[in-house]
Amino acid sequence: MSKWRTILIYYLFLLILSGSPALANEAFSDYYNVTYKINPDGKTEVTQNISIVNNATEVYAADYTITIGSENITNIKAEDRVGSLTPELTIGNGSTSIRVVFKDKVVGAKRALNWTLKYEAADVAVHNGTVWEVTVPRLSAPSEIKSYDINLIIPKSFGPEMYISPGPEKFTETADASTYTFKKELFENTGIMAAFGTAQRFNLELTYHLKNPSFLSSGVEVALPPDIFGEQRVEIESLFPNPDSVAVDPDGNYLAKYSLTPREEKEIKLTAKVLLFHRTPDLSKSGRISEVPENLRVAYTPSDRFWESSDPEIKTLAAGIVQKDLSAAENAKRLYQYVVSNLSYDWKAVQSGLGLQRKGAKAVLQNKDQAVCMEFADLYIALLRSAGIPARRMAGYAFSQNTKTQPIPGDTLHTWVQVYLPKVGWISTDPTWGSTTNGLDYFSKLDTNHIVFSINGKNSEFPFPAGTYKIKPEQQGDLKVSFIEDNSFYPLEPALKIYQKEDDLFLENNPKGAGTAAIDVEVRINGAKNNRDEFLGTIPAYSEVKIADISFEAEPLPVNVTFKKFDGTLESKDYLIDLQPFGKEVLFRNRFYQILPLVLFLCMIGGILLLIPAFRKRLPGRLRFPLRGQDQ
What we know:
Elements: E1 2-6, E2 10-14, H1 21-27, E3 28-38, E4 44-54, E5 63-68, E6 73-80, E7 84-85, E8 88-92, E9 95-101, E10 112-121, E11 125-128, E12 131-136, E13 147-155, E14 161-165, E15 170-173, E16 177-182, H2 184-187, E17 192-196, E18 200-211, E19 218-224, E20 232-240, E21 245-248, E22 254-260, E23 265-276, H3 294-300, H4 312-321, H5 328-342, H6 347-351, H7 361-366, H8 373-386, E24 391-398, E25 413-421, E26 425-429, H9 431-436, E27 450-456, E28 479-483, E29 496-501, E30 504-509, E31 518-526, E32 531-539, E33 543-549, E34 557-564, E35 570-577, H10 584-617
Parallel strand pairs: 3-13
Antiparallel strand pairs: 1-2, 3-4, 4-10, 5-9, 6-7, 6-10, 8-9, 11-12, 12-17, 13-16, 14-17, 15-16, 18-23, 18-28, 19-22, 20-23, 21-22, 24-25, 24-27, 25-26, 29-30, 30-33, 31-32, 31-34, 34-35
């Protein structure tokens, strides 16, 4: 009879003397040594050296079937000690099954049948933009395998290592390649995920549709893609029409404000380049939950709509997962693993094309099989906040090379989570893809394919990300994202200018043109009468900010501006500002012209009131109206 057994691959043994399935599992021990040799063009040569050891004298392995989760398998060859084997292929449903009948008949306890399978795979290494991404799936039934070693050989032409997860047991390198060695225990539950390059680069074209439905003028704010230090850098090429202003909210969003007249519709178009870096956090440095700074605990752990962290069921659930003697990172990972393991992605809801309604954390606990990325993120945030770990939602675009394992619902929008860990900082995680990729590690290492459009921390809903500003449901194509295929794009420096407005000193950053934000701006004024330091924080493009009140000086005013570059180094620039007189007379004249329209308006109203009695006397008696205090 024949018996199927399941691992990362599936294989078949023919038992000679026994028909018992239980005996089949006990009759053999399996040992693997697998090499993935990736060539500079991305083609991967896979060599599987497999040893099947007999645990009994009365059985032997007669044939063997391997199922590989890809249809892109070519140049398949197999051999045992006697000679080459003829593979029988079955291709379909995203997989390739390879069956071989052994020529070597190995009988006897403790004896091994050694054989080799070789093939080429086209989707182990994928080149996206300027980054090579490498993925090796986890084992589906690791308990049935005694040993499984992997050697992953990466050509130097791929560039420097951005990240590799999990860390290898051994690393060696030559002039042409790097070799990472993994034991079964390292990757059996997570698989292997790696990326090579310096940074990922994207072109963005975003459209925002605005409408003022009221009969009064109003202002509307839209979220522009923000900078996230060390991870995301945005260079705006054009923003039309120009906003009235751009401000930074407490979560770090760039909010562009537009004025709309009554019933006006307006279309905003943004073109930009985005540079994404990978930052590998050292989770071993994480402190305890009790070490979370008070300001972050107050800001990022309260309950909110969709994040019902104070709900009794969620509080009880979180309390049962978190352990006080563990670090915040370890507890955050335990909560992450609960979400990944207990929610099921609702493929039918996404494929139906119907509008997806956000359910929130509490509701998805009652319907665990009806989750998309919103629910994975919301439940994870609610559990983290209930445990006292700051968390916020990231909404934006995520490039997926395989929508079967990395799903993106709707108009290519995706949501994931940022978690704050004491002594580490904010880290980005994606519980949705951690679930749908069958365990790839999206907790400690997020890829460079997630572009943030908005950050929801103080509020679970606002601001909305690009792609959701629509007037009509049929409006599509508001997000256009493409890779930049070379390394020609590097972030521009902010274009800063300092100028005087009466007795105030201002700093502007590209108020009418393309540019990038200035991060952690500090200003030092070194004049005879003006001597002070000011920290201004982040100043986006298309914005201006007041530095300080100043006193007039006849000599040019020295001003030094320091800001942080994206690589962490500081840039310092010196300015000499020729101040214009703004004495009391000048200030009085300027203030007078500012209030002159109000004075004229009040004079007009007073004149009308004075003319009313004279106008009344000229009316016929029956048309006169009484003034207050007179008889009618």
